[in-house]
Every structure is written in structure tokens, then in C-alpha cells.
Amino acid sequence: MKAAPRAVAPASLAAIFILAAAFYWGGLGPGDGERYIEAALRWREGPFLGDTHWALRHLFVLPMAALFTLIGPGEVSSILPNAAYAALTVAVTWALGRRHLGRHEAFLAAALVATSAFFVARPLELDVYGAEAFFAALACWLFAGARAGGGRCWLFAAGLAAGLAWTVREQALCLIVAFGLLILYSRKNVLRSLFLVGLGFGLVIAAELASYAVAAGDPFYRYRIDLGHRDIGVGAALPPERSGLHGRALEALKYMATTPATTPMLLMAAGALYYLRQAQIRLAPPAISALKVFGAAAGVSAILTPLAFNLAWTRYYPMLTYAAFLVVAVAIASLWTSGRKRAAAAAVLAVLAVNGAAADFTRDGDYAEARALARMAATSHEAIYADPLTVSRARYQLRLKGWSMAAASEKVRNVRDATTGSLVFGTERTEAPAGPSCTTAILDLRKTGWTHALLRATGIAGLLGGRAKAIAARPRPVKVMRLLDGPAIADPVTGDPCLDDVKRP
């Protein structure tokens, strides 16, 4: 790699990110996106304090609400703020990474992050950890800057950024724990350093408490809601005999070993560390120091988040995956600068391939059913019934088109309330009431990717276990049916012929 003009690297990274975002873009995906959309829509109507822990993540919700006001609600305006957070994560990796890792290493790290399934593909489906990852990465880089002689302001700024990450998700507290341990281990200006980091973090907390004291009359308003919220953590998924610390640790290890967007990068990072040691690559002291910061943040968060917060999924501690990207980038840059350019290029292609495959594998296309249901509901003169998940998603598709929740709920209803004469949108999750029906349409809506087809064709899905087999299975089509009180040859309402050879699922 030859030194490039100053503007070439940022422009190249911007182009890489735009291409990756366009490649991964698929609209809303599974998760809590609808909850954030509801909060943003309510902010659009006027100041809204927030009554759920999703609505209280203001650094995530308010940019969405601002775009709803400026350009109107929609899937694009919902996702653009998270796309901006992903782009900022790439930018901070380049801008601050080159101070510590070197230009080549920082460019590679930023480019790999820009094409990642973890930091780009999944957040673009509207997941809050994209915002958390940006503030967490910024906090770690600022703390690394302080260790490299940046001075007191860097420590304060690191605490401030960690505080902003905390307002997005509380498990970002792990950053402060990691910083504290690093300060204690360094034995340099311990009290002053702890004070400055704590001051930055504490100012965010103080500002938040003061804001809620004024707006809600209760400085602990957010915490009362959060403490009363029971997320779907490890304990909810495990039987009582396995919900202790040992069970939580095992569950966290399972997710680290089976998450498509994380596991390959952890394996690559392990290989990269092995190469760096075997090749006796001597990294510059700033690079070693920075990697120690991210290693500490990754390790502490990967341990405390599952054990203390009862959250095992790797998206709840994004610095683990981020640190893996940094280590891989440093190793690839070392290959390049040592003259092994083919090996470096092959490693880059491998990272791109596994991230592309991970994004493809985790995208099962089931959101297409909600979009189709919303389109049907928008033109139908009657209510349509479907399974609860598809109903919830379809209602928010209508909300993004300007419908009120009352109107959307009236038009799209839970299949449990269906009776004779109801029109049912039968997904594979739908359990329609027993009795005769008239199926008038079969819709092949869900499109799975090339990884699913490959796993099915090779039989690998069966070897990987029931969960992988279920994900890779060919999706069942949607059946549009009318519930009847007796046999019929046509839909009594629309007159469409019944498909007699198709049984209700």
C-alpha cells in the first residue's frame, strides 16, 4: 500500500460503505423496530416523554422522529438514522484508528467494518445496537487516546461517550468497568484518571436525571421503567435448573459459537492472533495499547453482560465483534506490508465472503409477508386475519403510510378472533379455526438466499441441528382463505374459485 492523498482514503471508505449498504439494504427486519417506530411517530405529534424502555432510547428515537417530520414516515426514513450511525462507526474507526494502529491498519479495519454483517447489515434492519456500537467504539478510541498521551480531556471525553452509550442501552456500563480496570492496572494517576472518566460519565447521568425530574417529576423515571422491564434474556429461555450463573455462561458461549455475524470473525481473530505471534510481528506501542483497550472492553462486556444483565446474544456486547475486526485488520495489514499481498487479498476476500454469507443466512424474508398483508389491507373492504407477529408488522407498515393505530388494528386482526366468513392470511405461523375453508390464492412471498439453498442441497443443514435446519428450510407459501360453514366451490364474497386440491395448513 502506497501512501495516498489525504482525501482518497475517506472517499474510498465512503464508497465502500455506500456499496455495502446498498447490497445489504432490505428494509425493516425482525426485531424491535416497530416499537421504535411507534415512539418516533408519537414524537412527531409532539413532545413525548416515553412510557417503555424502547421509547426512552432518545438518541435512537429522536433522529427517526426528526426524519419523519422532515420527509414523512416510511421504511427509508426509519432506517436512515441507523445507517448514519453505521457510517459514523466506520468514520471513527478510520479517523481515530490511524492515530494508534497506523494508516494501513485503520483503513482496512474501517473498510471491513463498513462491509460487515454485524455493524451494517443487521443494524440497517433497524436494531438499536448500531447506535450503541458507535458510542461504545468512540469511547474506547478516546480512552486509547488518553493512554497514548492525549491528556485529561480525552479521559473526560471517553467517559462522556460511554455515558451516551449507556443512554442507548444500560449494559454499556461495562465500558466504565473496563476503563476502571485498565486505569488500576496502569497504576498511573489512578485517582485523577478515575475521576475524569467518572466525571464524563456522571455528567450524562446527571443531565438525564435532571431532565426527567423536570419533565416527569421523577429523576428516576427511566430507571423505574427499565427495572420493571423483563427482556427476553437467558433466564427466560433456560429451565430453572440452568438459569444460574453457570447456565448463563454456557448460553453466552453457545451464542458466541453459533452467531453467523460474530462467530466467523472470532475464529478469524483467533487465527490472526496466532499468525501475529508465530510471525513475531512487532506492533507499535500505540497499537498494542489500543488493542488492549478494545480487548478489555470486549472481555468485560462479554462476561458481565450475560452474567449480570442476563443477556447472552452477542449483539448486546458489540465491542467483542468490533475488537475481532481490529485484530483481523492488523494481521491483514501485516501480511500486505511484509510482501505477502496475495495472502492479504485472500484474507480480505474471506472476510467479505463470510460477512456476506452471514447476512444472507440470517435474512429469512419473512417480513415480505407483512408487507404483502399491509398492501392487501390497504385495498380491502374487509378485515384480514393473520398470526400475531405478521399482524403486528403489517399494522406498522400501515402506520408508516399514515394510518392511525386504531384504523390499522381494525383492518388487520389476530387470527384467534376469526369466525365463519373471515378472510385469513395464512402464513406458516397461522393457526386458523377448525372447519371448512376456501383457499383462493397461494402466494410465494418469502425468498430465502443462496446460503439456504446451498445448505438444503448439500444436506449440511441437517448436520448443523434443528435450528439451522429450520432456518434453511424452504418457506411455505401464504394461503389466502375464507372460513366457511360448509363446502363451497367459490368464495361467497369475492366469487374467486376455491383451490380444492389445497388443504388449510
Q: Percentage of helical residues?
A: 55-70%
N/C terminus separation:
59 Å
Kindly report the spatial arrangement of strands forming the biggest sheet.
2-1-3-5-4
Order of helices and strands: HHHHHHHHHHHHHHHHHHEHHEEEHHHE
Q: Mean of residue pLDDT?
A: 89
Q: What's the main sheet like?
A: 5 strands, mixed
Approximately what portion of the residues adopt beta-strand conformation?
under 5%
What attributes characterize this protein structure?
single chain, 505 residues, mainly alpha, 2 domains, five-stranded mixed β-sheet, 5 strands, globular, disordered C terminus
Protein architecture, described:
This protein is mainly α and 505 residues long. The chain has two domains: 26-362, no CATH class; 367-483, no CATH class. It contains 23 helices and five strands. It has helices at 8-24, 33-45, 58-71, 75-100, 103-114, 117-121, 129-150, 152-168, 173-186, 190-216, 221-227, 234-237, 245-258, 263-278, 285-308, 318-337, 341-362, 367-379, 388-399, 405-411, 450-458, 460-464, 466-472, and strands at residues 384-386, 412-414, 423-426, 437-443, 478-483. The chain has a five-stranded mixed beta sheet with strand order 2-1-3-5-4. Helix 9 runs antiparallel to helix 10 (190-216). The longest helix has 27 residues, at 190-216. Residues 230-241 and 501-505 have low confidence and may be disordered.
